[in-house]
Design goal:
Number of strands of chain B: 10
Strand order of the largest sheet of chain A: 3-2-1-4-5
Distance between the termini of chain A: 27 Å
Number of helices of chain A: 9
Distance between the termini of chain B: 30 Å
Number of domains of chain B: 1
Order of helices and strands of chain B: EHEHEHHHEHEHHHHHEEHEHHHEHEH
Shape of chain B: globular
Helix content of chain B: 40-55%
Radius of gyration of chain B: 21 Å
Strand content of chain B: 5-15%
Number of helices of chain B: 17
Oligomer: heterodimer
Chain lengths: ~270, ~425
C-alpha cells in the first residue's frame, strides 16, 4: 500500500497511548498500545511506529493522523484533534447504532456519553476531580491489597462475600480497605468491592438508558466491571472489540470523515 | 451557524479608562481610611450601598478584592492562613482568600499603591446572596472593634411579595441610626434619592452594555464583561459609574453598528451560569476564542442590574431590587430567567459552572440544567471548578468538557458506521 489511503488515530491517554489505523473504507487495519509514561509525544511516536509495523504499511500510506485523549494537544504528529468524548462516541458507533449510552472508564477519568438515534452526541458527563470510578482508583486499591492491577481480575474472581466501599474519595476508600483488612475481610472480597465501587461511582454520574456500550482500558481488562454494570442496570452491556483502542479508532474515523468532507481540522 | 463578521480590531478602548476609574476608587477609599477624611464602610456587593453613599461614606467592596485575589492567583497563596484559623476550605473562597490576605499582609491592591484593604469604620452586609458575607464581616468587626450591621434577607424567594419588601424596608430603616452615628451626620432624603437615581442610571447603562452580547456576532463577551463590571460593583450610586458606562456603551454600540464581534469569528453562542473561574479567566477566554465560540451573556454579569430601583421610593425600591436578584430566588424564577436569557441572547448552549465553595451561585445541584434542556431543547454543560480555589479546578477536565461540548454543537452527525 503506497498511496496515502490510510488514516491513523492516536489516543494519548494518562496510562496508555493507543493507536488505530483504518483504510479509506473505514475498515480497521491494526491497533497498538504502549505505555504513555512521562513523554507524551514520544509515546505517540512509539505507538504510531508499532501501528505501522503491525499493519505492514509505510508512513507514506497514511493520509492523515488525528489525536484524541488528554494529551491530544501534545502529539506533534497529529494534524487534527477531537476530544475523547467525540472519539469514543464515534468509535462505539462503528459497532452499535444509536441511540446509545457509551460508558468509558479510563485510567484517569470516566465518562458517560449520550448519543441519539442519528448518531449525534447529545450530552455527556465526566467524573468530578477525584479518581473514584476510574482506573487510578483500581490501581490504588490493588496497592492496598498488596497486589498489582493486572492481578485484580483473578483475585476478585475468588470472592465470596459482597462488601461495599462507600467513600467518594480514593484515599478514604484506601483507608476503608485497611479497616476491612483489620476486620479480617478477604482480599478477594475487597477486590470485588473495588469493582463494585467503580460501577457505583460511574452510574451516579448520569442516567443510563437504551443500548449501553462500554469502552476503555478498565472495561477491556477487568470483565467483572462489565458483569457488575449489567447487574446494576439490568440490561446487557456491549463491549466492542478493541474496547481499549476505541477512542483511537474513533479519531481515525474522524480523520477519514474530514478527508471525505474536507472539513477543517479543529484545534490542531 | 457559521458567520464571518468583520473582526474587532482591538480590545475595548474603554479599558484604559476603566483602569483609571478603578485606580481612583481604590485610592479614594484608602486615602479616606488613612487621613480620616471620610467615614469608610465595607459593603457586600449587592448590599444597600445607597444608604452609605447618601451619608458620605467611602465604600470598599471586599468581594471585588476577592475577585482580584482570584484573578491574580494570589488567592491560593494566602487562603491557607484562613483555613488554619478555622475557616473551612469548603466555605466561600472569596472569604478565605480575603481573610488570608489580611492575615498574610499580601494583596493585589499593593499594585494600586495600597498597603492592604482599607480599614473600615463600619461593615454593612445583606444576606440576600449568602450567609457567608455576614461571617466574613464579623471577622473584621472583631478585629477592628467596629459595628457590623446588615439585612438578614429572604432566600429562595418565589414571587417577591409585599410582605417580603415590608420586612426588608423595616430592616433598612433599622440600620439608619447606626449608619448615621458612625458617619456623624443625618440621613437626608434628597441625598438618598440622588444615590438611588445614580444607581439606577448606572444599572440601566450597564444593562445596555450587556445587551451588546445579544448582537450577532456578540460585541461583548462574558470574559470582557467580568472585567468591565468593576464600576457596576464598586461605584454603584456614583456619577463616576454612570460616566464610565456611557463611554463603554458608546464603544459597544459602535461595534454593534459596525457588525464587529468581540471575537474574530463566532460559530456558537454560549450562556454562562455561575461564578467566573477568576484564576483561569484569560485561559478560558482564549479557549473559547480558539473554539470560535462567544460566551455572550451570564447570570453573573447580569447580577448588577437593578431594574426595580426608583428614586421616588428609595427604601422600598432598594428592598424590591435586593429581593429580585437571581441569587436570592427559588428554582422556578431561576428557570424562567434562564429560559428568557436563552431566547433573548439566541444561545446555542448553556454552561453551568458548579463552583465548589459557592453553592448559592451554583445552579446545577438541583436538576436545573436537565429541566432547562428539556424545556428549551438547548444543550447544557456542567463544569466543576471554583471562583478562587484552583485546588478545585482541573484544567484538563474543564478543557475536555468545553471542547467536547463545542464538538457536540458542531453536530457532525448522523454518523453511521463508515465501513458499513
Amino acid at each position: 500500500m503506497t498511496r496515502a489511503s490510510c488514516f491513523a488515530g492516536i489516543d494519548s491517554g494518562s496510562w496508555n497511548t493507543k493507536a488505530a489505523l483504518v483504510d479509506e473504507q473505514g475498515r480497521l487495519l491494526a491497533t497498538a498500545v504502549v505505555r504513555t509514561g512521562a513523554d507524551v509525544p514520544g509515546a505517540a511516536e512509539r505507538a504510531f511506529g508499532e501501528l505501522l509495523g503491525r499493519a505492514g504499511v509505510d508512513r507514506a500510506a497514511v493520509a492523515s493522523i488525528w489525536a484524541t485523549g488528554f494529551g491530544r494537544h501534545a502529539v506533534p504528529l497529529a494534524t487534527g484533534v477531537r476530544t475523547e468524548l467525540d472519539s469514543h462516541a464515534r468509535g462505539a458507533l462503528q459497532f452499535v447504532p444509536g441511540p446509545l449510552t457509551v460508558i468509558d472508564i479510563g485510567g484517569q477519568d470516566a465518562k458517560i456519553i449520550l448519543v441519539d438515534a442519528l448518531g449525534r452526541r447529545v450530552g455527556h458527563k465526566m467524573n468530578r476531580k477525584c479518581a473514584s470510578g476510574t482506573g487510578s482508583f483500581l490501581e490504588e486499591m490493588a496497592l492496598r491489597l498488596d497486589s498489582r492491577i493486572a492481578e485484580m481480575p483473578a483475585l476478585a474472581s475468588g470472592f465470596g462475600e459482597e462488601l461495599d466501599l462507600g467513600s467518594f474519595c480514593t484515599v478514604f476508600s484506601g483507608t476503608e480497605v485497611l479497616g476491612l483488612i483489620r476486620q479480617g475481610k478477604r482480599p478477594a472480597d475487597l477486590a470485588r468491592a473495588a469493582y463494585r465501587s467503580v460501577v457505583k461511582r460511574v452510574l451516579e454520574m448520569e442516567r443510563v438508558e437504551g443500548t449501553v456500550v462500554a469502552t476503555g482500558g478498565v472495561v477491556a481488562h477487568h470483565p467483572m466491571v462489565v458483569e457488575l454494570l449489567e447487574v446494576a442496570i439490568g440490561a446487557r452491556v456491549t463491549v466492542p472489540a478493541h474496547a481499549q483502542e476505541i477512542g483511537a479508532l474513533g479519531v481515525a474515523i474522524a480523520a477519514l470523515e474530514a478527508a471525505r468532507s474536507h472539513a477543517p481540522a479543529d484545534g490542531a | 451557524m457559521a458567520s464571518t463578521p468583520r473582526a474587532a480590531e482591538a480590545p475595548l478602548a474603554s479599558g484604559a479608562r476603566l483602569k483609571e476609574v478603578m485606580g481612583a476608587h481604590f485610592a479614594g477609599v484608602d486615602r479616606a481610611a488613612r487621613e480620616r477624611s471620610a467615614p469608610v464602610a465595607w459593603c457586600t456587593s449587592v448590599g444597600p450601598v445607597e444608604l452609605l453613599r447618601a451619608l458620605g461614606y467611602q465604600v470598599f467592596f471586599p468581594e471585588n478584592h476577592g475577585a482580584l485575589l482570584g484573578a491574580t492567583r494570589m488567592a491560593n497563596e494566602v487562603m491557607g492562613r484562613a483555613h488554619a484559623l478555622g475557616y473551612s476550605p469548603d466555605i466561600c473562597s472569596y472569604l478565605t482568600s480575603d481573610i488570608g490576605s489580611y492575615l498574610q499582609g499580601k494583596t493585589p491592591l499593593q499594585r494600586h499603591g495600597l498597603s492592604g484593604a482599607p480599614r473600615a469604620d463600619l461593615l454593612l452586609y445583606s444576606t440576600n446572596q449568602c450567609r457567608e458575607v455576614r461571617d466574613w464581616f464579623e471577622f473584621y468587626g472583631r478585629e477592628w472593634n467596629v459595628p457590623v450591621v446588615g439585612v438578614t434577607s429572604f432566600r429562595d424567594v418565589g414571587e417577591v411579595e409585599p410582605h417580603h419588601v415590608d420586612a426588608i424596608v423595616r430592616q433598612l430603616e433599622g440600620l439608619v441610626p447606626t449608619l448615621e452615628s458612625v458617619a456623624g451626620r443625618r440621613l437626608e432624603g434628597p441625598r438618598l434619592e440622588e444615590a438611588v437615581a445614580l444607581s439606577r442610571t448606572s444599572s440601566d447603562l450597564w444593562k445596555s452594555c450587556l445587551r451588546a452580547g445579544a448582537a450577532r456576532p456578540a460585541a461583548l463577551t462574558f470574559f470582557d464583561g467580568t472585567i468591565h463590571m468593576g464600576p457596576a460593583v464598586v461605584l454603584r450610586g456614583t456619577q463616576e459609574a454612570c460616566d464610565y458606562y456611557r463611554l463603554l456603551e458608546a464603544e459597544l454600540q459602535a461595534r454593534v453598528r459596525a457588525g464587529a464581534g468581540a471575537l474574530p469569528r463566532e460559530r456558537f453562542r454560549i450562556y454562562w451560569d455561575g461564578m467566573p473561574v477568576w484564576g483561569r479567566l484569560r485561559d478560558l477566554g482564549a479557549l473559547f476564542a480558539r473554539l470560535e465560540t462567544s460566551v455572550v451573556a451570564s447570570t453573573y454579569c447580569n447580577s448588577w442590574v437593578f431594574d426595580a430601583l426608583d428614586p421616588r421610593d428609595p427604601l422600598r425600591s432598594m428592598a424590591q431590587a435586593s429581593l429580585e436578584l437571581f441569587i436570592a430566588r427559588a428554582e422556578g424564577p431561576k428557570h424562567r430567567y434562564l429560559e428568557s436569557m436563552v431566547r433573548e441572547f439566541s444561545v446555542d448552549g448553556v454552561l453551568f459552572h458548579d463552583s465548589r465553595t459557592c453553592p448559592n451561585n451554583s445552579n446545577a445541584r438541583f436538576g436545573l440544567p436537565q429541566r432547562l434542556r428539556r424545556a428549551t431543547g438547548t444543550p447544557v454543560l456542567v463544569i466543576d471548578g471554583d471562583l478562587n480555589d484552583l485546588r478545585c479546578f482541573s484544567d484538563e477536565q474543564a478543557h475536555t468538557n468545553i471542547e467536547g461540548f463545542v464538538e457536540q454543537l458542531e453536530g457532525a452527525g448522523p454518523r453511521a458506521p463508515v465501513s458499513a
